[in-house]
C-alpha cells in the first residue's frame, strides 16, 4: 500500500468506478517523463483515496509500437461500455500525438485501438481529453504545442463513434496568450497550453480547466464557454485557479460526495507528486477549498 506522497507521478487522473466503489489513478511516470524509454503506463487502485494498491501495468506496448519516448498524461473514460485511454506519445522521427487505447476493464490491459494517433500527424500535439457534446457525439480536445507554433493552442476535433479516428478537421478554441494570467516561458512570444479537462458546473456552465505558466510558475486556469458547448466562444478567468507551482488537473466526484481536484505539485523533477484538493462548485466558476491528501 502506498500514500500519494510515495507515488512519483505527474499529470494525475483519477477515475471513480461507482459500481465497485474503487478509484483508479493513472499518470505520467516521473522517472521517465523526460528521459529514458518508458515501460508503458501503470494504474493504482484505492477505495478511500488515501491508501493505494499498485502499481499494476495498465498498458505495456508491443515491441512494434511506434513510440519510444515521452509517454505522457494518460486519462481513462468510459464510453459505450468500454474504457478508453487517451495518452500522448513521441518518437525521434514522428510528431508527438495522442493515441486512443481500449480495454474492457478500468485497470486494463489497454490495447491499441486505431491506426496510430488521432491528432494531426504533422502537428506536435499532447494531452488529449474526451468531450461528448450536446448531441452525444464524441470529440478529442488537445493542445497544439508551443514547440511548433510558439503560442500554444487548445484545439478540438470530432471523432468517429468508435473513437478510432478523426471525423472532421481541428478547430481552435483559444490560444494560451488569450488568458490574462499567462506569462511567456521564453522571450515574449512563447506561451504554453497543457492539460485540458471539461467540467459542467451545477448551473450548467461548461468550464475548461487547463494549465500554463503564470507569475508564480506552473499554474492552472479556467475558461468558460459562452454558448455552453465546445465551439464557444471561450472567455478566460482573469486570475489562475491554482497559481503556484502545480497543475495539470482534472475533477471527479468522491463516493461520499464532494468535488475533488488531483494535480501534481511541485512541477519539478524528481519532487512532483499527486495531491488532491477539495473544490467548491460556484456555478460560473470553481474555488479550491482545502487540501485533502
TrEMBL record:
<dbReference type="Pfam" id="PF04616">
    <property type="entry name" value="Glyco_hydro_43"/>
</dbReference>
<dbReference type="GO" id="GO:0016787">
    <property type="term" value="F:hydrolase activity"/>
</dbReference>
<comment type="pathway">
    <text>Glycan metabolism; L-arabinan degradation.</text>
</comment>
<keyword id="KW-0378">Hydrolase</keyword>
<comment type="similarity">
    <text>Belongs to the glycosyl hydrolase 43 family.</text>
</comment>
<dbReference type="InterPro" id="IPR023296">
    <property type="entry name" value="Glyco_hydro_beta-prop_sf"/>
</dbReference>
<keyword id="KW-0326">Glycosidase</keyword>
<dbReference type="InterPro" id="IPR050727">
    <property type="entry name" value="GH43_arabinanases"/>
</dbReference>
<protein>
    <submittedName>
        <fullName>Glycosyl hydrolases family 43</fullName>
    </submittedName>
</protein>
<dbReference type="InterPro" id="IPR006710">
    <property type="entry name" value="Glyco_hydro_43"/>
</dbReference>
